[in-house]
Structure to design on (139 residues):
């Protein structure tokens, strides 16, 4: 199995995790609590998946990126955290989750073993659920 797409997904996942956590801390406004909890749900899931993806990389005898510079060099996600309004944060995370699903779906097609298929398939299901939460919040 080519590890590059999995390592890139690992980096993308961590970048979106970090952004969601930053939004969780910095959101303000009349619906603060709703957004604060929603962003927490996103970053909690991504954090859990970060460990699962890292373990899958190691099980395939590849090295996991360890530093933030390595993560930013490998990700296609924006590593900069701006200070947008709450709904802009939701929209930004929705787009990032859509990108994660696209990357994971492409990776799924290249999985050569059932363990990879299970991990990536479950990942996509969870990300799609969070994307739906964010999309429903915007409407």
């Amino acid at each position: 199995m080519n590890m590059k797409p999995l390592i890139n997904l690992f980096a993308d996942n961590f970048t979106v995790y970090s952004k969601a956590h930053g939004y969780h801390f910095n959101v303000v406004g009349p619906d603060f609590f709703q957004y604060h909890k929603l962003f927490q749900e996103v970053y909690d899931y991504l954090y859990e998946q970060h460990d699962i993806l890292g373990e899958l990389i190691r099980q395939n005898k590849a090295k996991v990126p360890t530093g933030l510079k390595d993560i930013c060099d490998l990700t296609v996600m924006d590593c900069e955290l701006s200070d947008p309004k709450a709904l802009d944060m939701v929209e930004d995370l929705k787009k990032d989750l859509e990108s994660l699903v696209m990357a994971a779906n492409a990776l799924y097609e290249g999985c050569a073993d059932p363990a990879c298929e299970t991990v990536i398939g479950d990942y996509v299901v969870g990300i799609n659920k969070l994307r739906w939460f964010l999309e429903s919040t915007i409407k």
